[in-house]
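Practice set, problem 2.
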Amino acid sequence: MPSLITAGPDGALWCTLNQANAIARITPAGDVTTYPLPTPGAAPVGIHAGRAAVWFAEIGAGQVGCIVPDGRPEEFPLPDRSCRPHAVAAAADGGCWVTLWAASSVVRLDGGGQLTDETSFPPGAEPHGIALAPDETVWVALEAGTLAHLTYPG
């Protein structure tokens, strides 16, 4: 069950395989390599490539992961494992932003997977999609029916 797909820093396409608990890499020639995730039941969904790594959200495990083009996955547990991370957007500095659907918030992780920022929304906002604008501000699609535009100093 492929969920989402992104163009990687290596010229290949990368996608989450939600029910297979894996990440797949697809070359332009159509060759597919599957990378199983270390955590059982991780259920990866959102995925987005940065300059050096591909970030993904593990909705079933309450974690965020990244994988480098050679296929080494790394996982980072979030403080609230029931937060249901859904969408991810890679940042220019090597970190990422992640929507936490069940926690009604958005978090920022640095390139080493450490939590650096969090923005909370009212209960029921259900943050789902996320994107970074060219100026690195964050846009979040809330299933409650609105968009949120987040700006941070620096």
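Problem 2, part (b): a different protein.
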Amino acid sequence: MRRRVTSTYGSVPDVPVRGGVLSIGNFDGVHLGHRLLLDRMRAAALARGVPSVVVTFFPPARVLFGGGQYLMTPEEKLVALSAYAPDVVVSIPFDRDFANTEKETWLAQLSELAPSLIVVGEDFRFGKARAGGLDDLRGIAAELEAFPLLEVDGAVVSSSRVRELLGMGDVANATRLLGAPYLVRGVVTRGQQRGRTIGFPTANLDVPSGKVLPRGVFAVTVEAAGRALAGMANVGPRPTFPEAPPALEVHVFDFADDLYGAELDVRFVKQLRGQRAFAGVEELRAQLSMDERAAREALGL
């Protein structure tokens, strides 16, 4: 059984441990490049017998300043980080006040942790106007390791690239760069219940604003209250019912329990098709039957 994160904090000064191995970064999506840093952090901490500490931020700067979207909520990020069993996670709210923190203030806070090793990406910058860099970090840690940017198929692995792929509905290639199927966590809310009338009841998920959602119809896995389930999801506007708002709707296979109010973890495995409008309910029902067969095949059911 994998170990859970033992402690979480909202700022560096709150952290009580000293002498640990720190990995610092935004880690939006916890993609393959991030995983190299986290693997090294954990291995070094175990070898030295010291705590491992992840320092991360939410939301990404591009969301604060540019109105962009993000890949992971803080809670979703903790799910991904738990695979590396950090002793401490510091999840710092990235707002305009924090963005204006002088690099000297940041360095003083990190220095109080007396890090034996800091692991970051080679492009890591920090502080107001991104004034802080690797040379500054070398001054406060016994050791610094800066990892080069990871490339896959000749292109740098980045959160921006993953967002682009998801925007195209390309969850297969997004999974390649993430190292795991894309996760969306949401709470089931009461929808218009049209699915029940055509034999495909759906759980409608309330997803935080700003979260990237791929558009289309997908084969998905679902976790609810520790139960591993499977299904298919429709994401985006509903062309056959244009008056309805965009949604993430999940039809869970072979499941009849009430999910209202439950928190679901939905992972996107394969895109089955794009969205399209149907002439009527019977045409929609026939297509959903074909989608279910394709989803079951994709999931090995």
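Answer key, part (b): The CA atoms of residues 72 and 167 lie 15 Å apart. The first strand starts at residue 7 and ends at 9.
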